[in-house]
Amino acid sequence: MTDQIQDSAILGAFELGFPWQTFDPFLFCVHHDDAYPAGTPTLGPPKETLKGRNIGMDFELREGWRMYHGDVVPGFPRHPHRGFETVTLARHGYIDHSDSTGAKARFGHGDCQWMTAGKGVVHSEMFPLLDQDGDNRGELFQIWLNLPAEDKMVEPYFTMLWSEGIPRPQVAEGVELEVVAGPLPERVEVPAGTPKAPPAPPPNSWAARPEAEVAIWTIRMEPGSRWTLPAASPGLNRTLYFFLGESVALGGQLLDRHAGVRLRSDQSVELEASSEGRVELLMLQGRPIGEPVAHHGPFVMNTQAELRQAFIDYRSTGFGGWPWAEDGPVHGPTPGRFAVHSDGREETHEAAE
């Protein structure tokens, strides 16, 4: 149980809510997992399944899925951000991104989009249901990473961390580590032809500073498997989120319900998966920025005065306007993955399954 964990490497445990509790430099983390039905030609669920939902504000898990702020296609139509970064790790399904700089992308099935909002950006994230013959599972982590005061007003920027470039080494028998950010643990053998380090985060990210030691890992453990999470430097905030599986032992202490666990960053801890099924955990780690946080809605600044200015700026400039005909654009029925950046640079990848 979460109130029974006692180990020198463990600082405490807490229940997983919606969103999950996070710690500096992280601001927000939510795990979306929706079992969407077969899609329609409009790339949304059948109209009859929308009856009784609070369309435009549907966060109720009914029949295994939600529409969020979408009305035809599930997702999050245009909304602004300033002063932090969004890290969107798409585990299943596709996400269609569009933003006020003119950039757009379709990504999914293990891809990650890392966006620096900086001085202000408007974007949409829609979840098109591309399979009209079968179910459309949508699963993602949405993580907010703070920016220090000196970088809060940088130019907006996004980068794609395509699935093929994200290392997923086997760190022990039955244990796979997915490294979205941060170096791989020492003495981990990476098979030939696979990435030996994750793609770089955006240049102004707190994660781009080696001394920040930001790490975003997922850990997949087969039944009964074991692995020792290695120590890092002292003074980091390190949190493990146990979100899938029956139970997991940390340092010999049983955790039998989904929860977050704060760890001492300079101590290793042994993880042991339940013999009853696969276990998955997310780890967020980073050196605290240690600055005041003024947060309201989509803006994260250091002072209330800066927050008020953010709202004034958004009302007067729209952070560059909205170049799209719809509030929640989707990018057609073809499942290929791509990105078109604001400078015109294009990336294309095959559809992922």
TrEMBL record:
Pirin N-terminal domain: residues covered: 70-145
Cofactor: binding comment: Binds 1 Fe cation per subunit.
Example GO molecular function: metal ion binding
Entry cofactors: Fe cation
Pfam families in the cross-refs: Pirin, Pirin_C
Protein name: Pirin family protein
Membership in a protein family: Belongs to the pirin family.
Region ranges (Disordered): 326-353
Keyword GTP-binding: no
Comp. bias intervals (Basic and acidic residues): 340-353
Positions that bind Fe cation: H79, H81, H123, E125
Start and end residues of each Pirin C-terminal domain: 217-320
Keywords assigned by UniProt, alphabetized: Iron, Metal-binding
Entries under InterPro entries matching the protein: Pirin, Pirin_C_dom, Pirin_N_dom, RmlC-like_jellyroll, RmlC_Cupin_sf
Record bears the keyword Metal-binding: yes
Taxonomic classification: Bacteria, Pseudomonadati, Myxococcota, Polyangia, Nannocystales
Protein origin, superkingdom: Bacteria
